[in-house]
DNA sequence: CATGAATGAGCATTCATTCAT
DNA sequence: CATGAATGAATGCTCATTCAT
């Protein structure tokens, strides 16, 4: 929408990641975004609403990205690999958003309402997992636990790549960790 | 050491988990710990030093707990399972500490000095992994990545158990997720 | 004049009485009056000028009302009773204006210039009192003090009626308090 | 109690009268009282609590002053005159308190709880009036209305004296206005 | 060692006012 | 005439830290 609003969102994302939510004053955000202090409150009723809007918008962007090029017919492994590779490339291309989720997904600043709303955008992943388990393609564990394990593996991989930026064989690493995960989780 | 110091540490741990670091005032900690506001600063030079001390001490306790009953001769799988089970039971018995690590391990409040110091207490786990890889018992991946994957699986499992407290077959769940992990990571 | 100006005046009167001058933002007045925020400043240079205009216009209306049906020949008592009854009925019919005067007559928001200008519209009441004293119909006190006593009795009466809206014998009450006042103040 | 608290109360009283409640910042009060900005909030939880405390304490002082030297046996006229003279001298000796009551008695800043609490300290005046009416010494009007009329006459008199500080016959003026009031209100 | 009154820099938020459209 | 997005100074309040006792 408004260009000023977009600049506020982008600046807040950067600063919340680098210095933390509470350590970042609204005055700093405004200044760095090049708007007046009052302007922030024109677009966001409060600092809390700002971080919630940030979360919501990032989550929706990610959900949209996940669904791009979703393979319709291939095997469960290929579908899962699609998610894996989408998630990895999104995280590497949007490092601030990735850190933001790691830092604030479980923080008290994100209201449960926001979490619920955002969760619905990812319902399709839960559905996918449940269908695959029922079809006998995956080990029979709770779908929520599955998502948690998948995210854990993902975080570990991305974290490793981020902390070792000199590595050149990124695709090899991500394929390897996916292979480990798949080896563990697949029914066979 | 001093009993007052211990009460301050315990109260801070609880409050930092429940309300967050920045949302918890030193006055609140002091009052809840039953000491005067000045007393906190007698034992900790600043609020920052307090949270760093908290981190250091919890990390050291955990390292000590890890080494208890460490099996000296058995197989790599048994040794790894020892860590797994120690970590799970510690997390379930010390929920505040577990949440504390999740919340603050990557926060800017914990100085890199503190992190380095604490990492050394866990050097033996890195050593163990590297030996096992060299011995051909584990898939040949970076030892740091291995630890990250292990921790990710661990967090996912504990998180799942914590969010589903009605479950009675806790051991079954932890054994299952360990089995998945081992199936993926082991060389065979 | 302009219908928008009139709506702003009316809305401001209501809100200043109900929530106070400083507690009412110009944005709120504009919104409730159905005009844009800038429009208010088209008709009134500042918020201060708005409240001063409000005061001036209300005062002039009241002065005009006082002079309606002014008895030309009757006795001093009848003339005074005319003012009494006009004032009472105006106050009961224009409760917002009445409260407004009570709240802001001595406030620092109304400039002394405004007060002076408005006072001139009531010069005729002072003249009336002074003539009556000279003619020996009233106790020989300062005319300003007389007006103050009259207003005090008036406020007390209206306040009592307003706080006891269930009373049905309003005319009896106002006649009685006027009688008390007259008994005290008349020369006899 | 605390000397700092007393200085804050005194400064706030002065500034609220001279510049109004909302026009006086807590920073200004603190500076003028010679304390730090935080100190004000040490003694008063909020600016609102400050003005309520001010009201309560002034009201209680006044009530105490009223009861000093209360004549036990004399006539109703003498008792009423006692209140009159006490009130006048209190108002002239405590001009800030007097203005404060005029400005804030009906303001929304004083909570109804505060008003109720303070009203109880003046219950004895209502009792006195009711007894006197029953005994047939005063005109049979509502006791609340009586108090309102008495206060109105009082305010008018004090206002007149304050606006005409050059007058030397203050006692004559107050005796005269009391006489007018008594002439009107007494049963005879 | 221990206390808690006092400090004052820092922050989120409001709002009268302007001005480009 | 009318609009409303944008401004930024001003304000009530918090809280880590100090220090006299």
TrEMBL record, chains A, B, C, D:
The keyword Manganese does not apply. Gene3D superfamilies: Tetracycline Repressor, domain 2. Residues 2-62 form the HTH tetR-type domain. It holds the Pfam family TetR_N. Keywords: DNA-binding. Residues 25-44 bind DNA. This is TetR/AcrR family transcriptional regulator.
